[in-house]
Design brief:
Number of helices: 3
Mean pLDDT: 75
Number of strands: 5
Strand content: 15-25%
Low-confidence stretches: 1-5, 180-184
Helix content: 40-55%
Number of domains: 2
Largest sheet: 5 strands, antiparallel
Distance between the termini: 104 Å
Length: 206
């Protein structure tokens, strides 16, 4: 005896199977979307972390550079190489030297400060303004050693960065034979020198 085929039961089973299959497919799809989003978020987070790590490393490097060069920078400021020029220091060294060496005649003049053209500077120094003041010295001295000593004093004692542009020496008595300059004279030579004093400042807007 055969059992009757129950189409309703089969239909219900098929519907249930399809529902389960669709649910499983939805779970797989949603899992893939979640995994993709999580991966994107992780990638973005890693990029941010690397970015901050690079910034921290750069800050640490800059800090080490500042520490290494802090003393040198302070010394340049103290010596009036960076900042405002110290003309009083230049004049004081000249007067002190003249008094010490008993040089009877020393005339000096300092021209107005000018800023150098940026085109004269290397590109890596474009954020720095370089200023120059020309100082002229006109002296009557006993011998060449006085001139060398004066230049040495200005270079080592005066505040600032100095370059000796030129120095001219001339015998006062044209008739004095070479090698027979009077040792008991107060001055035998006239010396005329031009010096450039340089100071550095941060460029406006740099």
């Amino acid at each position: 005896m055969y059992k009757s085929f129950n189409f309703l039961a089969v239909k219900k089973s098929l519907i249930f199977f399809v529902v389960v299959l669709v649910s499983m497919a939805a779970v797989v799809v949603l899992s893939g979307i979640y995994k993709s989003n999580a991966s994107s978020e992780n990638t973005l987070m890693l990029r941010k972390m690397r970015g901050w790590s690079n910034k921290i490393d750069k800050a640490n490097r800059n800090n080490r550079i500042l520490v290494q060069h802090e003393d040198a920078f302070k010394k340049l400021v103290e010596n009036a190489v960076i900042g405002d020029e110290n003309r009083l220091s230049w004049v004081e060294v000249v007067q002190k030297f003249a008094d010490t060496r008993k040089i009877p005649s020393v005339k000096y003049d300092i021209a107005s400060q000018v800023m150098l053209d940026k085109k004269m500077l290397d590109k890596k120094f474009q954020n720095i303004d370089v200023y120059k003041s020309v100082m002229s010295l006109d002296m009557k001295i006993l011998h060449e050693g006085d001139l060398f000593e004066m230049m040495g004093s200005l270079t080592s004692e005066a505040k600032g960065l100095v370059a000796i542009d030129k120095c001219d020496l001339e015998l006062i008595d044209k008739d004095i034979a070479e090698g027979n300059i009077l040792s008991d004279a107060r001055h035998n030579l006239t010396a005329y020198c031009e010096l450039s004093w340089y100071t550095l400042k941060r460029a406006n807007g740099a």
